[in-house]
Amino acid sequence: MTEPLRLGIAGLGTVGVGVIRIIARHTEMLAARAGRPIEIVAVSARSRSKDRGVDLTPYGWEDDPVALARRDDVDVYVELMGGEDGPAKASVEAAIGAGKHVVTANKAMLAIHGQKMAEAAEAANVALRFEAAVAGGIPVIKALTEGLAGNRITRVMGVMNGTCNYILTRMENEGVPYDEVFAEAQALGYLEADPTLDVGGIDAGHKLALLSAIAFGTRVDFAGVDLEGIERISITDIEQARDMGFRIKLLGVAQLTGRGLEQRMQPCLVPASSPLGQLENAMNMVVLEGDAVGQIVLRGAGAGEGPTASAVMSDVIDIARGFRLSTFGQPASSLAYVQAAQASAPAAFYLRLTLKDAPGVLAKVARALADAGVSIDRMRQYSHKDTAAPVLMVTHKTTRAELDHALEGIKATGVSLEDPVAIRIEEV
Amino acid sequence: MTEPLRLGIAGLGTVGVGVIRIIARHTEMLAARAGRPIEIVAVSARSRSKDRGVDLTPYGWEDDPVALARRDDVDVYVELMGGEDGPAKASVEAAIGAGKHVVTANKAMLAIHGQKMAEAAEAANVALRFEAAVAGGIPVIKALTEGLAGNRITRVMGVMNGTCNYILTRMENEGVPYDEVFAEAQALGYLEADPTLDVGGIDAGHKLALLSAIAFGTRVDFAGVDLEGIERISITDIEQARDMGFRIKLLGVAQLTGRGLEQRMQPCLVPASSPLGQLENAMNMVVLEGDAVGQIVLRGAGAGEGPTASAVMSDVIDIARGFRLSTFGQPASSLAYVQAAQASAPAAFYLRLTLKDAPGVLAKVARALADAGVSIDRMRQYSHKDTAAPVLMVTHKTTRAELDHALEGIKATGVSLEDPVAIRIEEV
Lengths: 428, 428
What we know:
Helix content of chain A: 25-40%
Order of helices and strands of chain A: EHHEEHEHEHEHEHHHHEHEEEEHEHEEHE
Number of domains of chain A: 3
Shape of chain A: elongated
Number of strands of chain A: 16
CATH architecture of the largest domain in chain A: 2-Layer Sandwich
Strand content of chain A: 15-25%
Oligomer: homodimer
Largest interface: A-B, 60 and 60 residues
CATH superfamily of the largest domain in chain A: Dihydrodipicolinate Reductase, domain 2
């Protein structure tokens, strides 16, 4: 095992540069830990001439990532370009086809094509690893597939999009409305080119789908994730939550029940005193619950050069050490098809209604709720100047189906001026 | 790899029974994840007839753990008896000598004999693993040796003795004095037979010494841990800390600096709003800081049947999967001898002095502090009825050496009626 492990890196954005820096800085330390040297033999990116602050002259260059993936002198193809299809997918498939190990940070690609890619990798007897795809520097894939491998996992939860948590934290701490913080985050380059990937919960949903597959031994089912973004969260919601001892988080929750696989990525109210409630700014947190271990909480930076490159290196070092683990912790062919299920456990919900200001309106809403079997724990109507009356409620525990029924009923009364905002109160 | 992995388990206390339960409950799941069945072939304990709530009839029995360790049909010897010498050490050495892999939860044994045992295991080409020895169910050894293997680790911190944290939390939340909570914890069986292992910080110190070795690639040096227990923490200290926005924790901190390896396991003041400050009851928390990943926080149960057995199973499954990793993450022979160093970074300290109630006393104390170069940030003297005046102070940042010098000076004045209590304010 003293032969070097030779890497080809495609994608020289923040993470790719971070990986180059770690390998250049820690050559000896890495060799001591991995039992063999780790070398970069060649790289690929859109522009060869762009100044990235690292010296690329020691490495070979390929314009085409597919060519890089197939190079004879590459043992591990490191895909850091992103994008669910296109060059990322083509090059990863080429690498597997050429018998190369693959390390990737590409959650979108794996959330869609992960099952097929894992099967191909296992058939080719190569590793396909993706620690960097979920929760940045937090070694959560390793914790689930290895650290907690003796547990039946009962629930996985996580705040896994740092940008959303940053936006919500700023709204809460500084009282800045959503639109303003959003514009700010965009100006600072915190948001993806398509911002709905972040604020629409899609990016975090990809991550949750990957964690679910590992946690429950099921096929990756991104389409089965009940997705809701943070776009409709208002300062009023945040303040009201705080007054009740809660904070609003874009929280992913996955559970396997008798009815199927529940996967939700939605704004939730969580107790302000809980670890999830206390998570500020762009930090990520994953909560893993197992039948033996109880609850394990992992917290760290979810993005950025160093943290994500650290996760890439974890996979690379595992491969250098000769560890061979199925992509999702057990053979891809053994992952179960399980149908998607809506959240079945009853929960209390926070509701924000915008109602016509007219006599009898509240009675109609109360009737619609009662008809659906939803009872109200507390209610508050703010004084207001215009013809739209904001009404805030917290329900007693109810199922999502009953609540949706109630919301339909409210809509049917014709007294609701905007779609109601409904946020689950999660027991964490 | 479809041959079963055959275990011999020595020690059928809480953890041993937990391992038996997991293997019995999850036979198929474990085989799917590990790629081969995991079986218990024989067990050993002090009493064969004791009712432990699990059926031992499927397994062979050995009165002597050394005989169990050497059995031909055992692939992995699981040592869960504890004790730094005696049967634990003898049987682990026998297992390694017989070419068996070893999984142990024995922090005391490894903190003292870990280097030799790791060398022996590596020479015999067998695994010696100890995830369960540190922080119970938290997969911290794996996070350090594998998840963060691409990082130079800059600092490791942890609350790793649940009993101490339970005692401190009860003192804080309910105002119960130390002696009372201690007696209670003893009655509940929370304390080791020799309680100084817990409240004296020894058990947590063992764990810190193991983490340091992995984090910094140094030889385990338990003797180099600056150890201080929680026995002298009073309700006054806890209340005073709270008033200043801090909480008192038995905190381990390890750092490798130009002066050597700093390892401290001492009561510290940490900000009440920090993850460490918020850790309640018997929970454990480990904070890992790396040059690429930044800060990773891991939280979970530090003891108990399920959590500790979960950690044992993580090691067992790694071995079943064929992962072979040096005990401390790199070859034992490559671990560096580094001298122990006292904490060099200046810190503010909280001081509780018990002084004679007489004119000029405070002047003498102030002089002793000034002579040592220690300046006072704030001070408080409580009204009191007897002749002993309690005085609380917080110093400006100073080194431990300067502080010790000041404390010697105060002692020399003859006005101090009790040894001062000095607690470092840690920047976490």
